[in-house]
Amino acid sequence: MEKTPSSESSERIIGAGWQKLATFLTHAGRQKPGRDGSFVNPPIERGSTVVFPTVADMEAQGARAYEHELVYGAMGNPVQHELERVIAALEGGQHTQVVNSGLAACTVALLAFLKGGDHLLLPDSVYGPTRRFAVNFLARFGVEISFYPPRANEAELRAYMKPHTAVIFAESPGSHTFEVQDIPLLARIAHGVGARLLLDNTWGIGAFQPFTHGVDVSIQALTKYPAGHADVILGAITVQKPEDWRALRRAAIELGACGAPDECWLTLRGLKTMAVRLAQQARSAYALAQWLESRPEVACVRHPALPSCPGHALWKRDFQDASGLFGVELAAGITQEAMMAMLESLELFGIGASWGGYESLVLPTSGGLKRTHHEGLPSGAAFRVQVGLEDVDDLKADFFKALTLLT
């Protein structure tokens, strides 16, 4: 098993943290056998209308809309509710709301906890569509938007706070540039002024326990590792406090946000193998990242588990393991055009925007990132790598051939 280098006394074994989840994920969301036996996996129930024997029964069930109970199809379905229980346990929260995409998880969460006149503080490294939603949508309804450098210290962060700051949003590691944020610090600052801390925890699912570090709302793109097979679009929002659950659930109902039964069922199935998939993907990604870091064509590799990566100390302090996604910046003098030709020559890596599936992918990132602050932006040609389930030696060999095009 690949070991991370470390200047400290303890060493982190990449992949071991995921394996600790294997028993939980194997048994979570399974059916208990009935007297006459039953299938291991729960059935898919598709429907919109829910019928009741009496009006009184219908009204009584309607009063249970906050209890993951069947009320109406647009308010959730049985397999969605089972998935919500599993994700809540995995994230260490009390309640989860499943919605139709990872972006919807970001937007529904923001709408649940913001109102006109509030101030929203976003990290400059936030997922691009979340940034666009804030700037193009929330601002139209009177929410003030500010962006802070994701690696800002306490004094710098406090300078961004305003009397009407209602939400601090975090994404750790950051999209494309992989800055690890000090989540306990952000939580302390947010709670000190009565604001909530929302975290996009997609990279860290299973590896970072948000609520033990002070997060109020944890957001997941279940499209990624939980579903795991590049065939599902789904998201989840998890909370711990009862008042946060009521606000979130009310927003989801009013926005009509829910998950389709088939998508939820596929995600439940994907979760059964997520621990073993991620154990291999994390190990392979780290080995590939180490190898790429040693190449003369590469200026730096942005992988939080690498000691050379800014934020590595925070990753080592707060995370139980790593992911299969990281960034690469090429050496000075290598043009964007040369990088494109190199990426297009890869045989085992598709060119695509998603990640978390079984397949390896690359995506150009330089030139297209929107930032308010220059900090963290690559100075040269850069791309993102998603490592799938292929043999890591084959992936290295594929990159070796492609990198020769740059010399």
Automatic annotation (TrEMBL):
Keyword Translocase: no
UniProt keyword annotations, A-Z: Lyase, Pyridoxal phosphate
Catalyzed reactions per annotation: L,L-cystathionine + H2O = L-homocysteine + pyruvate + NH4(+)
Pfam families: Cys_Met_Meta_PP (PF01053)
UniProt KW Lyase keyword: yes
GO molecular function: cysteine-S-conjugate beta-lyase activity
Coiled-coil regions listed in the entry: none
Family listed: Belongs to the trans-sulfuration enzymes family.
Superkingdom per UniProt: Bacteria
Designated name of the protein: Cystathionine beta-lyase
Needed co-factor(s): pyridoxal 5'-phosphate
InterPro entries according to UniProt: Cys/Met-Metab_PyrdxlP-dep_enz, Cys_b_lyase_bac, PyrdxlP-dep_Trfase, PyrdxlP-dep_Trfase_major, PyrdxlP-dep_Trfase_small
EC number, as in UniProt: 4.4.1.13
Gene3D superfamilies, alphabetized: Aspartate Aminotransferase, domain 1 (3.90.1150.10), Type I PLP-dependent aspartate aminotransferase-like (Major domain) (3.40.640.10)
